[in-house]
Amino acid sequence: MSAHSPDGGDTGDLTTVRVDQFLPHPPAKVWRALTEPELLAQWQMPGSEQFRLRVGHRYRMTSVPRPNSRFSGVVDVRVLAYDVERMLSVRWADADPARPADWTITWTLEQEGRGTRLFLVHEGFDPDDPAQMMARKIMDGGWRMHVMRSLGQTLDRLR
Length: 159
Known about the structure:
It is a single chain. By secondary structure, the chain is α+β, with helices and mostly antiparallel strands. It is built from 3 helices and 6 strands. It has helices spanning 27-35, 37-43, 130-157, and strands at residues 16-23, 58-62, 74-83, 87-94, 102-112, 115-123. A 6-stranded antiparallel β-sheet has the order 1-6-5-4-3-2, covered by helices on one side. A hairpin with a 2-residue loop joins β5 and β6 (115-123). The radius of gyration is 15 Å and the shape is globular. The two termini are 20 Å apart. 24% of the residues are buried.
């Protein structure tokens, strides 16, 4: 499974990470993995089991603090918008108001044959902030290597 965009990955837009991933599962199944709390808990950060598919819903996820990117390790999440089996958009902000992270994560699903083309757009990085550029580098690799693999494994187990 390739997680790189057609042009090889980096689009040159330092404010955004873009991932284009084919998953050999139908959109309805991928949507379940993106929105059902017990499935989210299998591939996203701890706390994702608190997700609810409701615009305005807020919850908190935890991860490893990363001082080099000024990430506290705690993410406040708010559901911004969704279109069932097509799109989900959430806001991620560092729980520490002194930290710079304030991002929008948008998942878009498109049927492709019997599978799904899943697009991830992670927006809001500040190209003038070295810590934000470090966060972008870490998140870009994390989305491509860890998250997409974990999501794929969750989908493979799901009947």
